[in-house]
From TrEMBL, chain A:
Membrane topology label: Multi-pass membrane protein
Keyword list, A-Z: Membrane, Transmembrane, Transmembrane helix
A Gene Ontology cellular-component term: plasma membrane
Spans traversing the lipid bilayer: 6-25, 60-82, 94-115, 127-148, 168-187, 214-238, 244-264, 276-294
Subcellular localization(s) per the UniProt record: Membrane
Keyword Membrane: yes
Domain of life: Bacteria
Signal peptide span: none
Primary subcellular site in the record, as a coarse category: membrane
Protein name stated in the entry: NADH-quinone oxidoreductase subunit H
Coiled coil regions, renumbered to chain: none
Protein transport in keyword set: no
From TrEMBL, chain B:
Gene3D superfamilies (UniProt xref): 3.40.50.12280
Domain of life according to the entry: Bacteria
Organism: Caloramator proteoclasticus DSM 10124
SUPFAM superfamilies named among the record's database cross-references: HydA/Nqo6-like (SSF56770)
GO biological process: aerobic respiration; electron transport coupled proton transport
Name of the protein: NADH-quinone oxidoreductase subunit B
Keyword set includes Translocase: no
One annotated GO molecular function: quinone binding
Occurrences of domain NADH:ubiquinone oxidoreductase-like 20kDa subunit (ranges): 7-100
Amino acid sequence: MMAVLRVFLFSLFAIFIGLLFMGIGRKVIARIQLRYGPPFYQAFLDVGKLFSRKSITHNFVMDLGMVMSLGGLLATMLFVPIAGHVAVKTSTNLIVIMYLMAIGYLGMAMAVAASGNPNATIGVSRALTMMLGYEVPFFTVMLGLIIVNGTSSLELISQSQAGSILNWNMIRFPLSFIAAEIALQAMMGEKPFDAMIAPAEIASGPMVELSGKYLGLAFLTHAVSIFVETAIIVNLFMGGASNIFTFVLKQFEIYLITVFIEAVFPRFKIEQAVKFLWTVPMGIAVLQLILILLK
Amino acid sequence: MTSRWDVERFGIGPMATPRQADVLLVTGYVSLKTLKRIIRTYEQMPEPKWVLAFGSCTVNGGIYWDSYNTITNLAEYIPVDITVSGCMPRPEAVMDALQTLMKMIQSGEAGAYKKYKENYEYYKANQDRVLKKTVPILGQTPKNDLEGKNEDAKE
């Protein structure tokens, strides 16, 4: 009973923080573009409105896929330690996290492919290609950290950086951090790497057939994915945190970096994006890996 | 709407597809060719949905009032909730109209999409009457593009 309650509370917390970040991100982008911008709680209003609307479904697989994508990401979230709290305790959660994170995107792929819209199919094929692009450098970064710490437990990696700020992996392995940041930008689908969404080109890609509640679920999925991905970076590079407030603040810093990059960059074509991800961040990550192995 | 007027501060933003849209803005004169697309877009939008007719051209034809292939009153073909007159209306007028529409939705005044379902025969007859003109006179057999795409509205 307690376990169920814990899972439920963790999910609500992740969704709340993710939506808050999305709203603040929109405001920040507006200020960078010298606009006034929507209120910071706009994302909550949007989700509320979307869930109150009539929605069009195409078939059962579409319903299932949308729920699977949200469920997959929520399941990932349960393995991520948040300031020492973790919903499900395991000893090798980094591998489980990376494994489960793909399920969310595969669920989304299943749902939108079932809708039968060609724009959606193009968007999904781009999203999966992009996944191939960012996972290789990100796994290389993780491999380096696993070798250094001798463990694949995210909790132990974050605990090993306790003490001063100089112990943070961000300072100890700056090259890894830069590579992970670039991979994170692609992971979140933010600007230089948003070829899968591309509203002007393929009519918002995977979301093209999503109306009402389905779009609301996609919003929630995005909110949870923001939470999970920033939480992984905070645990890997910024030493976790002693309380939840500091943890969320650190997550917000990471999210702000991606928002700043998002606000000023144009879009890569998909083949340019994958080429970039497999050369620049991959090169940096491999360099750091060699330095770690030589040490 | 541009960054100078920043319509996003009211929580309004452009969406790329009719499935995600609440409001359809018909901006400018409607030729018969455009009307087909407008009807198709309108019927693909999920309910509740609203239409904002923008500029004099959608109200009475504007300077195209006697054109052979331009409709004069959009409200005869799809139900219009709110109109902004002027040629061209200022951006402030459009933002004001959108906020008025929000108030109308709050008070329950704006429900033209229900009229479309109730009086479908009226709208369909009007649509067919003008869209007949788009059938080519010479060449292939007449084909009505709208056939089979009206299921959403009939539900």
